[in-house]
Amino acid sequence: MTWAFLLLLAGTPQAGSGTVAQVEHVAIQAADLDRSAAFYHEAFGLRLIPTPLKNRRWLDLGNGVALHILNGRVAPKPSNRDEHLAIHVDDLATVTAWFDRHGRAWTNLAGKPSTMQTRFDGVRQIYVQDPDGYWIEVSDRRGVVTQ
After folding, report:
1. Domain VOC spans what residues (predicted)?
2. DSSP per position, 42-85
């Protein structure tokens, strides 16, 4: 399952079987749990969720959705910016400054370094990779929601 599909379901009732489906969590594998959890916590302010599981780190994405980081990544997963986790932040300039201070490259969708882009709906966004190579789209506010 790809990030885009999972996040499309987030907060969106689905009526096919007569039930309502919502995203509960997204899981990724990491080579170093603490490094990965620290990245998401420090870069985006995600709150760590206590778990008794030693080979997992959980972070709160908001709206009842969690990011589960699992131990066991052995090699980077080939991917491109089209397969990504998308989040929005209150202050995109603060996030890009954090990336710059920590030597974390960020781009626009086309891959141009240190360049923000503005979507058709006025949302400014960038792309960055986490410590394990997963792409993250970071926007300055939520985009247009279509029904």
Report:
1. 22-141
2. HHH-PEEEP-S-TTEEEEEEETTEEEEEEE---SPPP--TTSEE
1 pLDDT above the threshold of 80: no
pTM, two decimal places: 0.83
Q: Residue 31, SS3?
A: coil
- Assign 144 a pLDDT band (cuts: 50, 70, 90): low
Q: Which CATH number fits domain 3-139: 2.10.25.10, 1.10.1660.10, 1.10.10.10, 3.10.180.10?
A: 3.10.180.10
State whether the Cα torsion 84-104-41-52 is positive or negative.
positive
Per the listing, tokens 């699992």 go with 70
CB 68 within 8 A of CB 26: yes
Residue 92 has pLDDT above 80, yes or no: yes
Contacts of 4 (CB under 8 A, 6+ apart): 82, 83, 84, 86
